[in-house]
Amino acid sequence: LPPGGASTGLYGISCGTEEECRAAVAENARAGADWIRIHTADFAAGSCYTGPSPVHTGVSETGKDEFVRMPPVLLKAACTMSHKLGLKAAVRVMTRDDPENALQAGADLIENVPELDDGLIGCFKENGTALSFSFSALLAFFKLPQNITGLADSCREKIKNQIEGMSRAVGSAMENGIPVGISGDSGRPYAAHYGFFRELCNFSQLCGARNEDVLYAATAGNAKILGIDAETGKVECGKCADLIVTNGNPVDDLKALRQVTMVMAAGNLIRTPHVRHLDDLDDARISGFDHFAG
To answer: What residues pair up with 132 in beta bridges, in sequence order?
Structure first.
């Protein structure tokens, strides 16, 4: 994360020098990571939150909508160190300039591109770089009442614009044969691991993708992007038996993924899966909205 961001300490390590970037990558490598996720921009601390929030503490004095950004030289240092240690680098972007900087830095995957013009499309295809998108956390911050998120009006408007731009970018990427995956944003505010089904529903409704294409992106597409498609991603002889059982057919209705009755992970059957829910998170969503997924 760039220093001075609102998310510092919440889900990332703040880095202000090339050496700090390299050290953060090495720390994650020692912990067993196989991918490094780099955020090129963040809302400036104290710039977006005008009231109490379950995510961030403190009250904004300015209400200004400001970004803090990671200079390209730091992004390059993090990506280069990742590759040196045999890891892949995923770059999460927020602003229009970020995708080009991430491509030049050697990113293997770029997340949540806010716009995709002809020039960027050519660069993605030339580099063989994949894209992934996640909407849940952004939708929550935009849709939930401000007395829950504490988010300022100006920041909500920027998030709205980002969601709209990402929705268009998904269609452009698919039309031009750029690999597209679906990420979950799990661990970020209002995006729980057990809510990944919402990403598929949001992907379909916001981007107009067919259910079949959404399911492919979330399974075989993700596996290929992550480099594990020889092991999983499809129901094929020789691959891991990674399966779920639902009451309905998600090809007909993606909301069927909400009710998973059985799970098989690497051939191990879990007949009655139990998922621990976060009550505060669920209460916040129910009090405001439940995304498009219902």
So the answer is: 111, 181
State the Cα–Cα distance between residues 26 and 145, nearest whole angstrom: 39
The residues with which 41 forms a beta bridge, in sequence order, are 69
Which tens digits make up the pLDDT trace of 106-165?
999 999 999 899 999 999 999 999 999 999 888 888 888 888 777 778 788 888 999 999
Q: How far is CA 40 from CA 156, 183, 294, in A?
A: 19, 17, 32
Q: Alpha carbon 162 to chain centroid distance?
A: 13
- Give 241-265 pLDDT, tens digit per residue: 999 999 999 999 999 999 999 999 9
Starting at the earlier edge strand, list the strands of the sheet with 180-182. 35-39, 88-92, 109-111, 130-133, 180-182
Helix (H) or strand (E) holding 123: helix 118-127
- When comparing pLDDT for 274 and 190, which is higher? 274
Please name the residue ranges forming H helices in 176-289. 196-207, 211-216, 222-226, 279-288
- pLDDT above 80 for 80: yes
Contact 211, 252 (CB under 8 A): yes
- Does pLDDT of 45 surpass 50? yes
Indicate the burial class of 183 (C-beta count within 10 angstroms; 0-12, 13-18, 19 or more).
buried
Distance, CA of 124 to CA of 99 (rounded, Å): 9
CA–CA separation, 77 vs 83, rounded Å? Answer: 10
Q: How far apart are CA 141 and CA 151, in angstroms?
A: 7
Q: How far apart are CA 40 and CA 160, in angstroms?
A: 19
pLDDT of residue 248: 96
Residue among 276, 8, 11 at smallest CA distance from 137: 11
Residue 204, SS3 per DSSP: helix
